[in-house]
Amino acid sequence: MSRGTIVYLGMCVLLVAGLWAILRAGSRLRAPEDLAGRWELRAVGPGKNAARHDELVIGQSGLFLDVAFSPGPRLGMKIVDQQPAPDGTIAVKLAGGGAELTATGGPGGDEFQLQGTGAAAGLWEARRTARRYGSPATPDSHAR
Amino acid sequence: MHGNPLLTLLVQVGLILALSRAMGWLFARFHQPQVMGEMVAGIMLGPSLFGWLAPQAAATIFPADTVQSLNVLSQVGVIFFLFLIGLELDPKLLRNRGHAAVVISHVSIIAPFLLGAGLTLYLYTRLFNNAPHMRFTAVALFMGAAMSITAFPVLARILIERNLHKTKVGAVTITCAAVDDVTAWCMLAFVVAVARADGLRPALLTAALSAAYVAVMFFAVRPFLRRLEVVYGKHGRLSQSVMAVVFLLVLGSAFTTEMIGIHALFGAFLMGAIMPKGTEFVRTISEKLEDFTVVFLLPIFFAFTGLRTSVGLLNRPELWLDTGLIVLVACAGKFGGSAVAARACGLGWREACAIGTLMNTRGLMELVILNIGRDLGVITDAVFAMMVLMALVTTFLTTPLLHWVYTRSGAAEAPGQAPSGAFSVLIPVSLPRSGVPLMQLADLITGPGNPARRIFALYLRRPTEREAYRSGIEESEAESARAASEPLAPLLEEARTRGVAVETVSFVTRDVAADIASVARSRGVGIVLMGFHKPVIGSTILGGTVHKVLTATAADVAVLVDRGFHGARKVLVPYMGTEHDRFAIELARRLAKNAAAAVTVMHVVPPGRRPTDRPLDARGAVTRTFDEPGLAAGVTLRVIEDPSPVNAVLTSAKEFDLVIVGVGEEWGLESHLFGWKAERIARDCPTSLLVVRKQPGGNPPGEARSNSGGEKIGQPDRKEQPVGTA
After folding, report:
1. Is B301 on the interface with A (CB under 8 A)?
2. Radius of gyration of chain A (CA)
3. A20 with A60, same domain?
4. What is the pLDDT of residues A21-53, one digit of tens each?
5. What is this model's ipTM?
6. Does the beta-carbon distance from A137 to B113 stay under 8 Å?
7. Could you tell me how many helices (H) and strands (E) chain A has, helices first?
8. Is residue B211 exposed (0-12), middle (13-18) or buried (19+ Cβ within 10 Å)?
């Protein structure tokens, strides 16, 4: 058997075994909670700036988020913590751009409670109205 | 413009086409594939550059609500482009493949696929969302498929331009790329089905429908296409009705695969793939479709891709590190996999690396697959931007890397290399009329009836616009023969008359001088004998391509300024003592020997020369060169006192058939190597002039005569008299 054939057979075995191992290992992984989309905000807390923001647009690539309040600041944030609660909800903590946000709600759901400090201080009920925004990502979808 | 979508679209498309052509042209200047420039143009129009530099202007020209029009146009463009790619697919490349090609092609898919899927284990928790379409399985399979892609047309074009398509490396790579092409689109269909399927039953249904669809295409549509070809054959032209039927079939196939759930592009590709190959019918369809698709629609696809690519999303160092990791894994998988497999199959490291480099070209195929992934929601915006950058980097690297690992070192094997001991001449021909005098001179220099001589006639043709995207592999043999036949015809006719065997070489080039040098090196030629044509701009002789050949070629070079050359019975060699002048004397000796030419070596010295002035052993050079019995009688050494060597030569030149002069400051001919200086001797010489340049170590093989064994130029030779004849 030539060296090339051995390499070839080895690669075929590697493909099957490797893909099986990868998919098996990957099935245990959980991607960061999907917060991407357009959110409608309703102020429910005493935060002084809360009433100013009535919409939130989030562009998300995993841990990295582009959070834009309308009207208001646009913040580059990162998910720093994500914890499931005993009641089945999930709490996602975001930090960056001089602000911290905590989103609490059902995993994969479209309704969250949003609590912010710093540059995005306030307490809101957030309801997702669109899962993605700016598709295709046109210039104005990122420049607000 | 606002409120009128048509006006907006016209402005958008106009801008896209203009920038795309400009960037394509610019990149081609730097020896990059034209498609690379067009891809970059698309990115430039998006938020990464235009939207970043002038957000208001970008929002005015590309408002969000009108971009859907571009989307539709780009989708139609890609559908027809994939149909063209399918048309290009030559089953001959897939059949009777060598063992090496089988192994390399499969490993070049498996390795990047596994590495891409494996990389997802790391990226999934960083760059992907827990969204319905981003299940790990779909993401991992997609990333694997995206890493495995190879841009067949771009790769094939690079091979042709580098004249590598006839080499072993070229043949293996083309086969591998064709296999990769088919595999990648099948794999993509599978990934799309997995991403869209919602459970086992729909997945099984998709698989069953796909199998039925492929069966219908092969057993029903293909025979129908053969009948269409017969109709075409009867009429001898492609009627609009037949063209409409072809369009309908493409659209119908795309529609069916989209409905089945394996994406419209697969249908378009398969439709092209099952068309009868190598026929006039397919060539005509291809030509009719190509310009509109490639020139008009594809740039819109690039622009649309650019509009969705926001490099600004990569706003943290860690995201750039992830991008670097993706590029690294992509290269390791494709380049590494192909190279290691090629090495394991017995190819040398250099050839293996060349194959790996070529297979690593992803080009616009990667953009096609990435857009599908993004539309499916399998990848996020940041991953999309990272993968687009990976596609650009891997495509950009191909040409310089290939040059570095392969062609630069002369590793590209050259069929028909001159055997050791043979004296060979390379004649690059640009204009047909210049071929005849060059052939005459080559015959006289190499010696009529000399069995050891090799004469190569080279015709380099510029790539046509049409060839920028298509492989051209299928046509290359016939096309290059056809393209070379006309410009080389007078030369070949002259060769037939003289009974000289000439080997012709012709291929597409983007750099004439570099390719002349490359062919000269690979064929081991002693002299490059070329003509001079007055350039469009300027009037210099040793400028432009001639200058580049003079500096880039390792062989000796002779440039014929033809002023009615019809033979070399009387030859004048002006002598000032340089190595180029000695080379001129050597060529004159050949003419004396082969054509019984009467040679006059003219040594010009300043008037009133003092005994302490440095002599230039003209007599010694002549004596050493014409040392064969019977030759010395045919040479005359004429020493002339004149303050201007150029004037002296020009005055005497009219008595001769040919003046052979070495490049040098003294003759005003070294100028363009170091700066501007008039080339008066070349411009005003009344007879044909052969400007020669001796390259260091460039002695004609097997015919080298010792120039260095004697005294060095400039060493005192008190015996030489200022005036006299030998």
Report:
1. no
2. 21
3. no
4. 999 999 999 999 999 999 998 888 665 555 577
5. 0.87
6. no
7. 2, 8
8. exposed
CB pairs under 8 A between A and B: 172
- Give mean pLDDT, residues B668-685: 56
- B485-488 contact pairs (CB < 8 A, 24+): B486/B432, B487/B429, B487/B430, B487/B431, B487/B432, B487/B435, B487/B459, B488/B429, B488/B432, B488/B435, B488/B457, B488/B459
Our measurement of the distance from residue B158's CA atom to the centroid of its chain's CA atoms, rounded to an integer in Å, reads: 5
First to last CA, chain A: 64
Q: What is the pTM of this model?
A: 0.71
The verdict on B122 touching A (C-beta cutoff 8 Å) is no
Distance from the Cα of A46 to chain B's closest Cα (Å) equals 31
Contact between B363 and B35 under an 8 Å Cβ cutoff? The reply is yes
Rounded to a whole number, what is the distance in Å from the CA of B119 to chain A's nearest CA? 9
Q: Report the Cα B631 to chain-centroid distance in Å.
A: 46
* Per-residue model confidence (pLDDT) at position B236: 79
Considering the domain architecture, whether residues A23 and A50 belong to the same structural domain is answered as no
CB contact under 8 A, B310 and A4: no
User: In which residue are the tokens 């042709």 written?
Assistant: B160
The nearest alpha carbon in chain B to A18 belongs to: B114
Token pair belonging to B480: 């290059």
Q: Does B228 have pLDDT greater than 80?
A: yes
What's the pLDDT tens digit per position in B491-520? 888 888 888 888 888 877 777 888 888 888
- What residues in A contact B121, CB-CB < 8 Å? 22, 25-26, 29
Evaluate whether A90 touches A45 at the Cβ level (below 8 Å): no
Residues A41 and A14 grouped into a single domain = no
Contacts of B18 (CB under 8 A, 6+ apart): none
Task: Name which of A69-83, B188-202, B289-303 the model is least confident about.
Answer: B188-202
Q: Which CATH number does B563-726 carry? A: 3.40.50.620
Half-sphere exposure of B8 (CA within 13 A, CB side): 19
Whether residue B88 contacts residue B310, with contact meaning beta carbons closer than 8 Å, is answered with: no
CB contact (8 A) between residue B382 and residue A61:
yes
Instruction: Judge: A30–B130 Cβ closer than 8 Å, yes or no.
Output: yes
Per-residue DSSP letter, B297 = I
**Is the four-CA dihedral A132, A135, A139, A140 of positive or negative sign?**
negative
Range of the domain at A26: 1-30
Of the listed ranges A29-43, B73-87, B270-284, B628-642, the one predicted with least confidence: B628-642
Architecture field, domain B69-407: Up-down Bundle (1.20)
Kindly identify which residue of chain B lies nearest to residue A6, measuring between CA atoms: B344
Any CB–CB contact under 8 A between B514 and chain A? no
From the list A8, A15, A30, which residue is nearest B114 (CB)? A15
Contact at CB, A137 and B381, closer than 8 angstroms: yes
> Do A7 and A78 have their domain in common?
no
Tally of structural domains, chain A: 2
B320: contact with A, CB 8 A cutoff: no
CB distance B140–A23 less than 8 Å? yes
Among residues B436, B476, B433, B334, the alpha carbon closest in space to that of B393 is found at B334
Residues from chain A contacting residue B383 (CB–CB below 8 Å): 61
Contacts B136 to A, Cβ<8 Å: 23, 26-27, 29, 31
Q: What is the amino acid identity at position B699?
A: N
Identify the CATH number of the domain defined by range B420-463+474-547. Answer: 3.40.50.620
A4 and A63 both lie in a single domain: no
Q: How many residues does chain B have?
A: 726
